[in-house]
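Task: sequence design from structure.
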C-alpha cells in the first residue's frame, strides 16, 4: 500500500485515475480476507501491506494474493496501510471530483473503521 501511494499520485497527475480507482477497490476487497500472521489473527480494518501475483500457466491467468505482513522482514503487521489507503481515496476524490467511490458503503466502513455487526 505504502509503495503504491506515490505511484497513485503520479497516475492521478497524469490523468489516469482509473488505475487508482481499481487499486482502491481491489485493496478494499482483499482487506476482507481473513488475516493471520504466525497463528495471530489480525483485527478488522487491516489493509494488505503488499501483494503477490501468482501465475497459473495451465489456465494462463493471474491471481492477486494479499500479503498482510507474513512475507515482511520480522513478519510485522501492516499498521500504516489503512492510513495510506484513506489518503489515496481522498486524493482520488479531490483529483477527479468522483465522490461516488468514497460514498460506497464498503469505503465508508473502511474510512470509519467499523462494520455493520
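Answer:
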Amino acid at each position: 500500500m505504502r509503495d503504491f501511494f506515490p505511484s497513485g499520485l503520479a497516475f492521478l497527475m497524469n490523468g489516469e485515475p482509473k488505475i487508482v480507482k481499481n487499486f482502491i477497490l481491489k485493496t478494499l476487497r482483499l482487506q476482507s480476507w481473513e488475516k493471520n500472521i504466525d497463528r495471530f489473527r489480525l483485527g478488522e480494518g487491516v489493509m494488505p501491506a503488499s501483494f503477490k501475483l501468482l501465475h497459473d500457466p495451465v489456465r494462463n491467468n493471474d491471481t492477486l494474493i494479499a500479503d498482510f505482513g507474513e512475507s515482511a522482514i520480522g513478519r510485522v503487521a501492516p499498521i500504516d496501510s489503512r492510513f495510506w489507503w484513506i489518503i489515496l481515496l481522498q486524493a482520488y476524490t479531490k483529483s477527479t471530483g468522483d465522490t461516488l467511490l468514497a460514498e460506497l458503503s464498503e469505503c465508508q466502513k473502511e474510512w470509519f473503521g467499523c462494520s455493520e455487526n
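The CA atoms of residues 41 and 85 lie 21 Å apart.
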